[in-house]
Design goal:
Shape: elongated
Largest sheet: 14 strands, antiparallel, barrel
CATH topology: Porin
Strand order of the largest sheet: 1-3-4-5-6-7-8-11-12-15-16-17-18-22
Number of helices: 1
Radius of gyration: 25 Å
Order of helices and strands: EEEEEEEEEHEEEEEEEEEEEEE
Low-confidence stretches: none
Structural class: mainly beta
Strand content: over 45%
Length: 368
């Protein structure tokens, strides 16, 4: 049986919060997502072929409370990249297999914040109102991948892979929504004059990635795997949203990161396999470049899974818990003032971001 179809779906739930030393807490909107994966593999002689689609990058964070103190810096961001891959591999006589793949990437991004508008009502101070500013765009691009595998024996094999960076140029809608409603007719007219919908563009790169790992069979029933990934995020220093009336620049200062994994499986019997994995990865975000839509942090991954095979059909299930390290930040809060140009001032208040994420993965494989 050289052909195989695999389908799975990963269900995720993420919760985050921002708190201050005064014990005030703001919870982000809960993010529930489903990430499907589909792949087909075939083998003809020494050639192997594969085609598949999967979500490779996904992020979502949104604070919607009207009194969230960081809302004028940002309220949230969503980002999702899905890849469609076509690959081929060839097995050399020296127990080495080489493979190449073409990747088509489709990505969507949304970033939002709140702003203050003002209009004169004939008094000593202006009337202020809040506005939601949003950037919603998409793009597609291509990249490639290359891999080597050395299969020494059933007890030991090694692998090395490279994924090229992918340059995305987002374009989409730049929109405003008045949030503070007033009974003054001049307010709507002033809002239309101050804030006009339009279009925007924004460049963003997915990083190059190098992966290396090996597996060894410790006993006839037990297998151990060690992996490391390195990602070139430092190419992103800032994110610009270029619009007709100017640019919004968000400081990113991303850094290169490595992820380490150790995994093992135990073949309890021919049909039943248990899996366990641990991983650690650093945050791509520098401490000084954190903002409310991206409070990323160092994290730890704990996974547990099981699979059961019925002749040609295999059922799989796995649970993963992701614990983000708490992020202590400052200069994340702004309050309303009557001083132009933006009617805001920094509180210099310290705050703490906390995030947790859960995954449940269900899958099926069919060999024929």
């Amino acid at each position: 049986m050289d052909r195989q179809i695999t389908f799975s779906v990963a269900l995720s739930d993420q919760r985050s919060s921002y708190s201050t030393p005064g014990k005030s807490v703001w919870d982000s909107e809960g993010e529930q997502s489903a990430f499907p994966f589909l792949a087909y593999q075939d083998r003809i002689g020494k050639f192997s072929f594969a085609v598949g689609t999967a979500v490779t990058h996904s992020y979502g964070h949104e604070f919607e409370d009207d009194d969230f103190p960081g809302r004028f810096l940002a309220t949230g961001m969503t980002f999702e990249a899905r890849e469609h891959v076509l690959g081929v591999a060839y097995q050399l006589p020296s127990k080495i297999s080489v493979g190449v793949g073409i990747r088509s990437v489709q990505a969507d991004m949304n970033w939002s914040r709140r702003r203050l508008g003002a209009f004169d009502i004939g008094l000593d101070q202006p009337q202020l109102y809040e506005v939601r500013e949003g950037f919603d765009g998409s793009d597609s691009a291509t990249g490639f991948s290359f891999g080597l595998q050395y299969y020494k024996s059933r007890r030991l094999n090694f692998g090395l892979a490279y994924q090229s960076p992918v340059s995305l140029s987002f374009s989409g809608d730049h929109s405003f929504l008045q949030l503070t409603q007033t009974q003054i007719p001049a307010a709507a007219q002033r809002f239309g004059q101050q804030f006009q919908d339009g279009r925007f563009t924004s460049d963003f790169d997915l990083p190059a990635k190098i992966s290396a790992g090996f597996t060894t069979r410790v006993t006839i029933r037990t297998r151990l795997e060690l992996d490391v990934d390195w990602e070139d995020w430092s190419r992103i220093e800032q994110q610009r949203f270029d619009r007709e009336t100017g640019s919004v620049v968000v400081d990113r200062q991303f850094r290169d990161v490595a992820t380490f994994r150790v995994a093992g499986d135990f073949q309890q019997k021919k049909a039943l396999l248990w899996r366990l994995a641990l991983a650690s990865s650093r945050s791509i975000a520098d401490q000084n470049a954190i903002e409310p839509s991206f409070p990323d942090a160092d994290r730890f991954h704990y996974s547990f899974g099981v699979s059961y095979t019925f002749e040609k059909l295999t059922l799989e299930a796995a649970y993963q818990y992701v614990q983000y390290r708490d992020r202590q930040v400052s200069d994340q809060e702004q309050l309303i003032s009557l001083e132009e140009p933006d009617y805001l001032y920094d509180t210099l208040q310290n705050g703490l971001y906390e995030t947790q994420r859960h995954y449940l993965n269900l899958g099926v494989r069919y060999r024929f």
